[in-house]
Amino acid sequence: MKRLFSRVGAVAAAALMVFAPVSAAATEGSALAASAAAVAAVSGAATAAAAQDPADAAPCEGRFVNPITDVCWSCLFPLTLGSIPLFKGDKPDTPNPSSPVCACPAPPPLFLRIGLSVGFWEPARLADVTQRPFCFVNLGGVKIDPGFGYPGKSSRKSDGVADRSAYHVHWYVYPVMVWLELLTDFLCVERTSFDIAYITELDPLWQDDHLSILIHPEALIFANPIATAACSVDCASTTAGHARHEMFWCAGCQGTMYPMNGNISGEYSDIQGALLAAERFAFKMHRQLLADGTSGPQAVCSKYKMPIMDKRQYRFQLVNPVRHTRGPFTCPAIGSSTVPYESGKTIPIKGEDYGFLVWRKRNCCVTVIP
To answer: Radius of gyration (Cα) for the chain, nearest Å?
Structure first.
């Protein structure tokens, strides 16, 4: 009976957190406060479970990300003017507006602002992916445990293939382009400060497959062998440089986007499992309306809500425990195979927690006439 009341409390708290209205001034950082309020109802049971989890006693390893040497600056490209590539680069791009000229609404007395339609990639977010609760990999491997929250619980078969892995994700606002004053004349560059925006240890939906259905009921449609097998097409297409947005339930070679939590079944490598957890989290942020669409013709004048994430909008660059800044396979799109680059990127025992720099495509209207 006690366990039943705990589950009911978790469902109620999660529902309040997910379906609470998001104001125009709300940011990703406000999600942390909402998560803390939701977990308070069930923190007693979660704390008891965390105290028994051996992962809590494991050392937290990591290092600070150098904003100059740890960033693959070639991932900034292609840089486009409308559909015209100014600097092509060697990475696939998303659809861009056809016209190099844009016109967007403006406050009176102008009512309209004319500009140039520019497209580029910006390193906008940073993500920890760890099996050790409250281990902040990209903050130098520091562990900040408040004494409550949900632990990670993983199990591994004797042949090395994961039966089930549970990852936590920490999501940072990381405006490195503002720090280095790159492209800061563009009105669309995000001018924010560094912040820890989200911690999944405080989110009951991230821990439980049943609770996560609250934000993605359509998962019941894709929970079948046919839909899962179709992801092999997405895997081959994305690895070849052509991600398929219409197959939104697929994470390509990583598996499926559902459930949107850190429970990864049957991972074939640590990097693959950690990357899938980060990709699912990005989708979860869009589903909870905490992340916006920033790419494509519809994003030229302003960001827009995108509850079904466009996978083509993001790239994930490995920065911890080993930075991946060179070569043709750096900054892979969501769904690309990890096999070509994962060798030597994991340090046994010491380096089994990961950090990713999240690149985001941005289309915007750079004002010519104020």
So the answer is: 21
φ/ψ of 171, rounded to 5, equals -110, 120
Structure tokens at 195: 């912040």
Q: Count the domains in the chain.
A: 1
Structure tokens at 222: 């894709």
Q: What is the DSSP code string of 112-126?
A: EEEEEEEEEEEEEEE
- The set of residues, in sequence order, having a beta carbon less than 8 Å from that of 216 and lying 6+ positions away, is 258, 259, 260, 287
Q: H or E element: which one contains 263?
A: strand 263-264
Structure tokens at 307: 């509850």
Residues 236 and 218: their CA atoms lie apart, in Å, by: 24
Chain-centre distance for alpha carbon 72: 18
DSSP labels, 134-190: TEETTBTSEE---S-S-----EE-TTS-EEEEE-EEEEEE--HHHHTTSSTTSTTS-
Q: Which residue has the tokens 């497959």?
A: 209
Q: Each residue of 100-139: pLDDT tens digit?
A: 999 999 888 878 889 999 999 999 999 999 999 999 999 9
Tell me the DSSP string of 55-112. Answer: GGGSPP---BPPTTTSS-GGGG--EEETTEEEE--SS------S-SEEEEE--TTT-E
Domain extent, residue 86, equals 2-369
- Tens-place pLDDT, residues 248-305: 999 999 999 999 999 998 788 889 999 999 999 999 999 999 999 999 999 999 999 9
Q: Beta strand 354-369 with 168-173: parallel, antiparallel or unpaired?
A: unpaired
DSSP assignment letter at 316: E
8 A C-beta contact, residue 309 and residue 160: no
Nearest CA to 35 among 243, 252, 281? 281
